[in-house]
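2024-03-11 09:14:02 INFO receiving multi-entity request
2024-03-11 09:14:02 INFO entity count = two
2024-03-11 09:14:03 INFO echoing inputs for audit
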Amino acid sequence: EVQLVESGGGLVQPGGSLRLSCEVSGVPFNICWMHWVRQTPGQGLVWVALIDSDGSSTFYADSVKGRFVISRDNTKNTLYLQMNSLRAEDTALYYCVKDYFGSMDVWGQGTTVTVSS
Amino acid sequence: AIQLTQSPSSLSASVGDRVTVTCRASQGITSALAWYQQRPGESPKLLIYDASTLQGGVPSRFSGSGSGTDFTLTISSLQPEDFATYYCQQFNTYPRTFGQGTKLDIK
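2024-03-11 09:21:47 INFO inference complete, emitting structure
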């Protein structure tokens, strides 16, 4: 069974930084493309970023470009999201998601990020 | 960015009803569309990809159709566990985008 377990969320002040992690098991991680998707309480889904299987290509939503960095460590089966210059509007539940030919077939349970003073 | 507009935004229906949700793209996306179900308190679940291909383990009462700019998700006979929010998502271009969601509740 494929499992994605996020961690690293928490409360951070505006302008601060946070790094999210996602441990992946049950699938050969080094061939998976991976996404981060976020969801604000009671609101819809927003795609954040995507990384290819070896980390050589990354893609970002305009709202996070230049502030967030998606990366991975295939030796540790772990996906990361480094979030800098955080804003109140970045407050959300962040999901780690496995790509499936463009769709998203496995989702973690999410980790909550709250940006507030 | 490609915008996806779902209609209706909310829908009330009864067990056994046939329900259709529409997703319209702001420009053509061939068949690069997926549908997800999200129950309260749960993570989204992939139902359909490539506009009409049912994900493994998804009941056959779910079906998808369309290409280009207009897509539909149909549930042929609603079951109690189907009351949830449904999202479409395009993967034709970057950035990936989702529709705003359609909340399906019990009449």
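2024-03-11 09:21:48 INFO post-check: The longest strand of chain B covers residues 19-25.
2024-03-11 09:21:48 INFO post-check: Chain B touches chain A through 23 residues (CB under 8 Å).
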